[in-house]
Structures are given as C-alpha cells and as structure tokens.
Design goal:
By secondary structure, the chain is an alpha+beta fold. It has helices at 2-48, 101-109, 147-189, 204-250, 256-288, 300-317, 335-351, 397-402, 409-419, and strands spanning 73-77, 83-86, 111-118, 123-131, 137-145, 296-299, 321-326, 330-333, 358-365, 369-375, 423-429, 433-439.
Length: 440
C-alpha cells in the first residue's frame, strides 16, 4: 500500500508538471505571437512614414534598409504582384506575390497578415502587409521559433525541474504515507481494544465491522473448543458406565439378583449415548448445511398435532397431562425441522415437570403464526435464562441426566428458529413453570 501511494503521488506530480509546462508554454507562445504581430504592425506604419515608398518610380537602389533593420524583412509589392523592393533578396529572383494571402488581403481590405511554418528550419515566419496610398503594398516579416522549438530548447531545464520535484515528491510522499498508514497499523495491532480511537472517520464502519468479526471468530473458536470438551465429557460418562457394568458382568463379579439391574443400566446408558450422538449429528448437519433447507407452505397446527402421538406416550409415562389447542396457521418452513423443534420443546416441558403436572401446546394465529409450549414445572431462575440455549447447558443437571436429557435440545431449537427467520422468547419462574413462544 505504501509503495502504491508513493508511486501514485509521484505520477500525479509528473503529470502536473508536464500539464503545467505545456499549458504555460502554449499561453505564453500565444502572447508572444500577438506581440510579434503588434510589433510588425508598428514597424509597417513607421516604414510607411519614411516616404521611401510614395512613388512606384522611386529607384529601389535609393532604398537601403538592410543595415537599419537586420531582423526585419521588408518587401514592396506593386498592384500587379511584382516585387518592387526586398531588403533580403534580389527582386529579379522573386516571383509574383499576388498569390500570397497577406498580399491579397491587403489589396482587398487594406491590411493582411499570415504565418507560414518552416518544418526544415523549425521556425515560423510572421507577415504583415499594409496598403499604401499609391495602391502598392508594403509588407514586413520576421522569423520566430515554433512552439515545438521552444519546448525542445526548454527540455533540459524542464528535465532538471522534474527530477528536483520528483525527489521532493518521494520525500514528501514517504512522510505523508507514514503519517497516513501509521495510525491504521496501530489500530490493526490493537484491534481487540475498543478503546483505541479509529484514526479516520471514514474507517469507523470498517473498523467496527472488523472488531465485530474478530470478536465473533474468537467466540466461535471458544464455542467449538467448549463443544469439543463437552462432547468428550458427555460421551465419556455413558461409555464409562457401560464399560464398567460390562466388565463386572464379564468377570462374573455380579450376583444373579443384580444382573438384571446392570443390564438395565447398560441399556439406559446406551440409549443416552445414542440420543447424544443423534443430537450431535443433527446439530452438525444444521451447522454445516451450505444450502438453504427445502421450505414449503405448511399448516403449523397440523404438523404439531402429528407430533403429539409419541409425545403423549412420553407424557403418560411420567404422569404428565399433555394438551393441544389452537387453529390452523400457515407458515413457510421445513416440515422435518418444525417437528424436531416441537418435539424438543415438548420433551423439555415434560422432562422438567413435576409428577401430575400439565403441558399445554397452543397454536395461535395473531399477527403472525405462533407456537406456545407452556408447563407448570420446576421453572428456570432468571440468572440461568440467558444460557439455556447454549449447547450442553443444563439448569438441573441431575434431573436432566436422570431423565435422559442430552443438553442439546434447546440448542437445536434455537438453530431451527434462526433458519426459519423466526423469534423465540422465554417466560419462566422457579416453582411456577416455563412458557416458550416461537413466532414465525
């Protein structure tokens, strides 16, 4: 970036110098041409006043301007185009001048002027002609360098100026670049520190976005690390139990009366292990899905009602009364994900309820279709409510493990809610119960 800034500053300086040089040279050359024309006009009038050219019968030998005016060519032309006098060449060698534009204009309007270029001499010749009282034309001319000749002659000085300014530009651009970049480098080195002021107002949105992304990346990395540690711990617990019970059974160290208990423990831990693996697979699939799930128009009430049969059995086994109510409400979503969301919410309501408790599932069609799962169970303390959607987080760890909870159900629910662009809210109090509301 520094190199680019330096090169661009130098490039801008060179372009500015060249543009200025061409512009000023062009302007001054035009002023120079204008001055030459004025000088020729004055010279012509002065020569007219010398009375050398009053009569065409004047002997040209009596007119001698070769020494008086060295840089000015004077020509006297008769009305038929014949050159009567020229201080720079013999009149015999000169042809008829009636075809010259300045001569024609002088005969027609009284004054004529023109400029002719000499590519070989790299010069311009300026002509000014004036009609005399005796119907002859007096013409004066002078040579001047062309604009390209002026530019070429100034090239060495211009080259020195360019080199000098480039040197200054390099030094100034290094200084400016350092002043511009240094605050940005300081901010980049301290990106985690929100107290570091953004050096430029235009960079504030960019800096804020980078800080946010940096924080998100760190949070995601920590979440993955915690998830890996939690998965290892959660898998290790049932596996250790299964391995321990199996080892005791294989070694014949268990009495006949306790074998059935050990078999039941092995099966219970196997079921827990299977549930845990299934939930981890579901979360992994939701996390790594690169394409949007297949969404269709579906009736929320009908999907939830289909889930109730297996959930009724689970509720009956725990002595929980499960009720469903509401009305048809159309949403756009993925049917399997909505089933998964419903099952996790209702299973949690059953799992964390008291014997003889109630779980109500309602479909409300207000401004937006809403799924409400309400229980009168143990409730969730206010201090714990922000964390219940974290992976493997449990409010009551002993109850969760005893009832087969994996700690991933609400994490899956949150993920499905986000994929459906829905909103989830929680209202809970210890000993009163919990109400979870999902608005689509």
């Amino acid at each position: 970036m520094k190199k680019k800034i330096n090169l661009r500053l130098i490039g801008i300086a060179i372009l500015a110098i060249l543009a200025t040089m061409v512009g000023i040279t062009t302007i001054y050359y035009r002023l120079f041409e204008e001055q030459i024309r004025k000088d020729l006009s004055v010279s012509a009038k002065l020569l007219k006043d010398t009375h050398y050219f009053e009569s065409v019968n004047t002997d040209s030998d009596d007119i001698d301007l070769s020494t008086d005016i060295e840089e000015l060519r004077v020509s006297w032309i008769d009305c038929d185009g014949t050159v009567l006098y020229d201080n720079d060449a013999s009149t015999v060698e000169l042809g008829n001048h009636l075809d010259r534009p300045e001569i024609r204009d002088a005969f027609e309007t009284g004054i004529g002027e023109s400029v002719r270029n000499s590519d070989t001499m790299n010069k311009n010749t300026f002509y000014f002609a004036v009609l005399l009282d005796n119907n002859t034309v007096l013409r004066v001319a002078t040579d001047a360098k062309s604009i390209w000749s002026v530019l070429f002659s100034a090239t060495p000085m211009i080259a020195l100026i360019i080199l000098f300014i480039i040197g200054m530009c390099v030094a100034i651009s290094h200084m400016l670049t350092r002043q511009l970049i240094e605050p940005i480098e300081t901010m980049a080195e301290n990106i985690e520190d929100a107290g570091i002021d953004t050096p430029y107002k235009e960079l504030e949105p960019f800096a804020e976005m980078i800080r946010k992304q940096h924080t998100d990346i760190l949070s995601a990395a920590k979440a993955r690390q915690d998830f890996t540690a939690n998965v290892s711990h959660e898998l290790k617990t049932p596996l250790t139990a299964i391995s321990g019970y199996a080892e005791l059974l294989a070694g014949g160290m268990v009495t006949e009366e306790k074998k059935n208990h050990f078999y039941q423990e092995i099966r219970k831990n196997s079921d827990r292990l299977l549930s845990l693996i299934n939930d981890i697979i579901k979360l992994s699939e939701l996390d790594r899905s690169e394409k949007d799930p297949d969404f269709v128009e579906l009736d929320l009430y009908a999907v939830v009602k289909d889930c109730m049969e297996s959930l009724m059995i689970s509720a009956d086994n725990r002595g929980i009364k499960l009720l469903i109510s509401g009305e048809s409400a159309m949403i756009r979503g993925n049917k399997e994900m909505i089933k998964e969301l419903t099952e996790n919410l209702v299973q949690n309501a059953i799992r964390y309820n008291n014997p003889g408790g109630n779980v109500s599932v309602m479909i409300i069609k207000k401004d937006r279709p809403t799924l409400v799962v309400k229980d009168d169970g143990i409730g969730i303390p206010a201090s714990e409510q922000e964390r219940i959607f974290e992976r493997f987080y449990r409010v009551d760890k002993s109850r969760s493990k005893a009832t087969g909870g994996t700690g991933l159900g609400l994490a899956i629910v949150k993920h499905i809610v986000e994929l459906h662009d829905a909103r989830i809210s929680l209202d809970s109090a210890p000993g009163v119960g919990t109400t979870i509301q999902v608005t689509f």
